Amino acid sequence: MPQRLLIALACAATAACASGRDDYPSLAIRDAERVTGTLQPAEPYVPTPAAPVVLANAQALVDQAESAHESFRRQLNGARSAAQAARGAGMGSERWAVASVAIAGLETERSRAMIALAELDRLAVAAATEGGALGELAAAQAQVDAMVAEETAGIDDLLAALGS
Predict the structure, then answer these.
(1) Which ranges in the chain belong to alpha helices (H)?
(2) What are the residues facing 132 on neighbouring strands?
(3) Integer Cα distance of 126 and 61 in angstroms
């Protein structure tokens, strides 16, 4: 019984606090809360062209990759012959060692092209970070990437023929 009396008394006290008072603020939307105004479209973004020095650096890197690629092509036939001669020879034999050295020379030329590609990537990241146009840099990257892919395929074929 004392618990029921205590609960009834608490309910009555709570009801008395809220009865008949109208000084609470309204929950309706106020004028300051209404959205007004007009939305103006933003000006289209036009990236700035790459600086001439960046394009000159990119061209120098493409030239470096082309030089490495030409050297790779000159060495490729000799490496193919060495790999064919080493076919069936045991690992560590004289023919296998000659073929391995020839393939290592090709990998050296590929690494020169890959360094140029990495530098082109760095230039492109710097240009993109600054909001610059990437058209010329992307074309240079694609050109060098194609050279590196061709070289990688050639080396992979030789390594498969050598059995390494």
Answers:
(1) 2-18, 52-85, 94-129, 135-162
(2) 48
(3) 16
**Residue 59: both structure tokens together:** 């061209």
Dihedral angle over CA of 137, 138, 144, 146, nearest 10 = -170
Q: What is the mean pLDDT of residues 7-18?
A: 68
Residues 6+ apart with CB under 8 A from 159: 103
Name the DSSP class of 42.
P
Q: What is the pLDDT of residue 161?
A: 82
Question: What pLDDT is stored for residue 61 in this prediction?
Answer: 94
Domains of the chain: 56-162 (1.10.132)
Residue 152 and residue 118: Cα distance in Å, rounded? 15
Distance from C-alpha of 96 to C-alpha of 132, rounded to nearest angstrom: 50
The secondary structure of residue 33, as a DSSP letter, is G
pLDDT per residue over 19-56, tens digit each?
556 678 888 888 888 877 777 888 887 777 777 788 88
